[in-house]
Structures are given as structure tokens and as C-alpha cells.
Amino acid sequence: MVKETFPGIFYALLLQDFPESLVETMAVFSILNLRLRDKKVLFIALLQTLTNLVRLLPIAFGMHTVILSLSLAIYTRLITKAQLSKIFLAILITFVIIGVVELIYSEPLLKVTGLKYETVFADPVLRAAFALPYEIVLLVVALSKNYYNQRKGLIC
Question: CA 30 to CA 132: how far, in whole Å?
Fold first, then answer.
């Protein structure tokens, strides 16, 4: 079980969980050809940020990813009425991007900084800093796909 204080939880929500939820939601919306300049994106990101508290639960490694994927799908479906199969595909694509990018940069970044994974995971500021590369990649993917959608008139 992760033992975090209230300020640690607050910093984690503010520095990592909200930005991560926002770019994930933006990526899902852009893959679904939905408008990014919409209050729905922010609302789903806020709901997803609160759902990120599931990371504090003593559950098996990787289960939080399943729970967060399902919650993102449910929130997106309830708020946008998009087709559930397309939502799951968009979420899968988003999580594959996150996984690939993390595989590419995690090990080298840990070696360069001389930090251990446990140290990074325990500190909300370090955890947010180590999440920044994939958040930037997801933001670029979301904005690029949104630009493409606008140019081709695909926005729903």
C-alpha cells in the first residue's frame, strides 16, 4: 500500500494526475474526431483525475490501469454518446502510445539522473517530472490529430 500524506496526494493530483488525465482525454477526443475546444474535455479530465485516487488502493500492479481505462471509457460514453467500441479503441491507442514512449525514455532517464524507480515513484514531484515526456507526446498527438481533423472537416 502506498503511504502518502494529504499534501503528497494533492501534489500528485495537481502535478501528474490532472495533466495526465487532460492529455489522455484530449488524445481520445482527437482520435474520435471530437472537438477539443469543448467543456466536455475538461469535465472528463477532472472526473478522471479524481478517479486516479484508485492508485492509492492496495490492488495488484496494473489493475489501476484497467480501472482507469474503464472509467475513461464510461465517462467519455456518458458525456459524448460516442460509440463504445470506438472509445475503447481510442483508449487502447492512447495507452499503447504511453507504454511505448515510457519504454523508450524511462530506463535512460533513470540512468542519467541516477535515481531508482522506487525513489521516483515515492515523490509526487519526481513522478510528475518523469511523466512529462509521455504527456508531451500525447499532447502533440492530440493537437496534430485535431489539426488534421479540422483540415479534413472530420470534427463531429
Answer: 20
Distance separating alpha carbons of residues 53 and 17, to the nearest angstrom: 9
Q: Retrieve residue 19's grid coordinates.
A: 495533466
Residue 74 included in any domain = yes
Domain housing 39: 6-150
Task: Quick: pLDDT tens for 42-70.
Answer: 999 999 999 988 887 888 878 989 999 99
Question: Is 111 contained in some domain?
Answer: yes
In a domain? residue 43: yes
Neighbour tally for 68: CB within 10 Å: 21
Asked if 79 and 35 count as a contact pair (C-beta separation under 8 A), the reply is no
- What's the length of the chain? 156
The pLDDT > 70 percentage for the chain reads 96
Instruction: Report the domain count for the chain.
Output: 1
Q: How confident is the model at residue 1 (pLDDT cuts 50, 70, 90)?
A: very low
Residue at 155 is within a domain: no
Measuring CA to CA, which residue among 62, 63, 60, 31 is closest to residue 144?
A: 31
pLDDT at residue 3, rounded to an integer: 54
Interatomic CA distance for residues 87 and 93, integer angstroms: 10
Record the cell numbers describing residue 141, joined without a space: 498527438
Determine the pLDDT at residue 114. Answer: 94
